[in-house]
Amino acid sequence: xxxxxxxxxxxxxxxxxxxxxxxxxxxxxxxxxxxxxxxxxxxxxxxxxxxxxxxxxxxxxxxxxxxxxxxxxxxxxxxxxxxxxxxxxxxxxxxxxxxxxxxxxxxxxxxxxxxxxxxxxxxxxxxxxxxxxxxxxxxxxxxxxxxxxxxxxxxxxxxxxxxxxxxxxxxxxxxxxxxxxxxxxxxxxxxxxxxxxxxxxxxxxxxxxxxxxxxxxxxxxxxxxxxxxxxxxxxxxxxxxxxx
Length: 244
Prior knowledge:
The chain is built from 8 helices and 9 strands. By secondary structure, it is of the alpha/beta class. It has one domain: NAD(P)-binding Rossmann-like Domain (Rossmann fold, 3-Layer(aba) Sandwich), CATH 3.40.50.720.
């Protein structure tokens, strides 16, 4: 094993926060392994990253397929993992079907566990590593129409705490980043509509965040000098979770 592995694996790296995390951590000097299901988007993101001399790579994987994840990731030597991949829908919980619930839970929760479980054994051998689970403010303060998504993020917060306890003796730190509402190209129309205007009023800072406002947090969490933080859930939500 290469004890000085410099690779950070990021799931859901083909767009949104995953693409932005890839850019930030590549600028920090990490080699990026971008994982996702859209090969063309992954290729575009990876080819645009800074520090191309680090030979960033991408890997097309369905993280909900435990066997595929094990086959493609279990032999890799990874310094850091960012479990970012996730999906959501807008339905009331009593209107959800088993199919839609399985899709959300398999991606957001089981998918993250599949990837973590594949890379943790080598982290244990190296006695080092960092895992960052991307949760959400909705994980502890849900809203209507996103109950299934909120439930997966609440579960991921508990997974973070359990992993931090279980892996501490192996010198592996596990933390969670819980963003609030982030304005991206994907949700711009929704958040700038009537529903977004009402939602913005509930945020103490009275605005949505940009993806770049998470840069300093993800950099800090993966920083090699950050050696005593584990089991933490960091909310970046404009004060939304602080109020009632």
